[in-house]
Design brief:
The protein has helices at residues 2-31, 33-61, 65-93, 97-141. With 142 residues, the protein is mainly alpha-helical.
Length: 142
């Protein structure tokens, strides 16, 4: 399961990075560099936040329930601290916060959709494997 989570993490981060770069270029083309810089910062904060989340999932996957919960709480604390520091740094750098938040939320929605599609594909694969095994057992019994 940990290997599967690592594979999902890699493929999502690559897809999200490409999506972020394409959105940055589109916003830059349509409205200029100032807004694009804010959007890009939001995507990067969201991308790193998702990376921290996936790392926490990998760490907690092989642990007993109580230790996994403690690990999840530490991971949530890391995410909150990182997000707060990123927002503070953006304010100090003069980056608009509203586009940053919108891009951050969009990237997290993309993450949820990606995870839902991945889970659906995995479910379809398991269903097909179960049907194949039932057919092979049925043929052996006849």
């Amino acid at each position: 399961m940990i290997e599967r989570a690592a594979k999902i993490k890699r493929s999502f981060l690559i897809a999200a990075g490409i999506f972020s770069l394409a959105a940055f270029c589109l916003v830059w083309f349509l409205s200029g560099f100032s807004l694009a810089r804010s959007v890009f910062a939001g995507f990067m904060v969201g991308l790193f936040d998702n990376y921290i989340m996936f790392m926490g999932v990998e760490k907690g996957a092989g642990l007993p329930f109580a230790k996994a919960m403690a690990s999840m709480k530490r991971n949530m604390f890391k995410r909150i601290v990182f997000d707060a520091l990123a927002i503070f740094a953006a304010l100090k750098a003069g980056i608009s916060i509203l586009p940053l938040f919108i891009a951050y939320i969009i990237l997290h929605l993309v993450c949820l959709i990606f995870i839902a599609i991945t889970a659906w594909r995995e479910d379809q694969k398991l269903t097909q494997d179960a049907e194949r095994s039932e057919k092979s057992v049925g043929k052996q019994n006849n």
